[in-house]
Structure formats: C-alpha cells, structure tokens
C-alpha cells in the first residue's frame, strides 16, 4: 500500500491551504485500479489519468482545476516527464527520488534540467520545502 507516504502531505494540505492534485500517465482503467487499490483517491482533491504527458497536457490540467501555472508545484520522479515539463510551464518543481522496496522502476531520465528545482528523497523533505515557501510567500499554492 502506498497510502502512508501520501498521508504525510494531508496535514500540510489542510493547514496551508494547498490543494493536492495528481496527474498520472498510463492506461486509464489500469491506473484507476492502482489508485483504488492503494487508496489514493482520499488524499487528492483532483486526479486525472492521461495517455501521455507534455507541457500542454500539464498546463491544461492546472487551468482546468482553477490554478495558474506559476502558482503550482510539480512534484515528480522523472526529470524528463515531470520536472522539465513543470519548469516549461513556469511551475516550481521538486524531484522526488522515490525507491519502492519491492521492485525497481527505471524512469525516463534526462541528463539535464531546463531550470532550477529541488531534489528530495522522502516526502517529509517535500513538506519542509513547501512550508518554507509558504512562510516566504503568503499566496496559496497547489501541488501536481
């Protein structure tokens, strides 16, 4: 079950006026089964499954849920399909070095980033970055 890591973000969402959104790439019915099996629906305000990700897909998702791209955080485990696309739309970005204990997932890696971003190895570090940003900027932010 994947729910424990995401539960670390729930207090932040409630206390800092964040909305939690999930944009995931994959075959729709397969991804939805994984979301239900891992009880992820309860942690996110918005969820969308898409067959592919590019900057326009992410930008449309952000706009559809009522945010401006510069007001969101893109948090992902791929420099290529998460971080660089987030930078391209003008979002703040965090690369999450996720390591699953039961399998090895090989991500599409880029050798360089299109701009600056944070890098973390656990979700508690993400909370620290968001809380620090929230303290320096009083506007609400969303995470995708």
Automatic annotation (TrEMBL):
SUPFAM superfamilies attached to this UniProt entry: HAD-like (SSF56784)
Name of the protein: HAD family hydrolase
């Amino acid at each position: 079950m994947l729910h424990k890591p995401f539960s670390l973000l729930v207090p932040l969402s409630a206390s800092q006026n964040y909305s939690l959104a999930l944009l995931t790439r994959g075959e729709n019915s397969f991804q939805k089964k994984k979301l239900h099996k891992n009880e992820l629906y309860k942690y996110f305000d918005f969820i969308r499954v898409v067959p592919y990700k590019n900057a326009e897909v992410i930008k449309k998702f952000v706009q559809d849920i009522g945010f401006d791209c510069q007001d969101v955080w893109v948090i992902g485990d791929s420099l290529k399909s998460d971080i660089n696309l987030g930078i391209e739309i003008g979002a703040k970005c965090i690369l999450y070095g996720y390591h699953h204990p039961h399998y090895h997932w090989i991500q599409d890696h880029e050798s360089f980033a299109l701009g600056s971003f944070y890098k973390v190895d656990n979700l508690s570090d993400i909370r620290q970055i968001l809380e620090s940003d929230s303290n320096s900027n009083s506007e609400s932010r969303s995470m995708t």
